[in-house]
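Form 12-C: Joint structure prediction
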Amino acid sequence: MKLSKKSDYALRAMIFLSLNYKKGAVQIKEISTKERIPQKFLENILLTLRKVGVLNSKMGLKGGYELARSPDLITLGEVIRALDGAIAPVDCVSMISYKPCSEEVTCVIRDVMMDVRNAITGVLDTMTFADMCKRAVESLEKKGNEALTYSI
Amino acid sequence: MKLSKKSDYALRAMIFLSLNYKKGAVQIKEISTKERIPQKFLENILLTLRKVGVLNSKMGLKGGYELARSPDLITLGEVIRALDGAIAPVDCVSMISYKPCSEEVTCVIRDVMMDVRNAITGVLDTMTFADMCKRAVESLEKKGNEALTYSI
DNA sequence: ACATATTCTACCATTTTGGTAGACATTTAA
DNA sequence: TTAAATGTCTACCAAAATGGTAGAATATGT
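Section 2 - Result
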């Protein structure tokens, strides 16, 4: 039931880009150093996020990445699915990589795994990056002035 | 977010043993053939379930495995943790393999992963093998007489 | 033209997953 | 008391997934 490093990095990068929404393109290098993510690895991640339509990119000098839509229209679930594939714990209850199991109509494990999937997606497909930004700011304010940086 | 084959097999074996609770020891070979689980693999699984106190075993001729407690006192969560380790998607929100992340107090990803963990354990730590048996029987009855066997 | 970005294709080491093999210890029944 | 049947233990193994890295190609602003 583990979140991969890839998805973890993707979430952090996405929050970073959400906090910089409408401020123009941000370069890989900036995200990678500020969030301490290996740059070459981050390149792959941002590339797949672009391919699924979550990010836009600009090549060349003054290039970079930015959100393709408003942060409140992108959920954590969408990002995690793009990198890790299905969120469902077994394929027979997955929306994006569905495969029937042997005795689907009477499989009781399937039933409970469906419950688990719904519990997870209930959180991840509801939470948007706008929500994450709000939480990040609130969390900063609570901490007071000593907090010059915060981890996303 | 995947359930390992090991845990999947473990759940099936546990349901099988729950349906045979108080009927004496069941042999590995019987579970392995009826549930189509590789026997040698199943041996390891049942062994670890014994070591965590979920199963009792008897060696020698007429030996076998049986539940160490009543099915309503064993949850799916306990079994999955025994085989796959932590259920939490990241270690910084795990009960059994907790490790702090870099900026715990202000980490917003941690917050949402805590929500995800609670959502998952809300299902898995509540559902017992007695519940699973009930579901299995109901599901059989609904299907009618044609159903001679059913997949657990 | 040149410096600075992203893009694309390939590779690679380590860990995890999903098993298998075989010797050993224990129990029962004949 | 001995043979057969069973769980126990240690070790091994191939394939896939994970977490990266390397380097050339392509696009863009000045």
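Section 3 - Comments
The radius of gyration of chain A is 18 Å. The domain at 5-142 of chain A is CATH 1.10.10.10 (Arc Repressor Mutant, subunit A).
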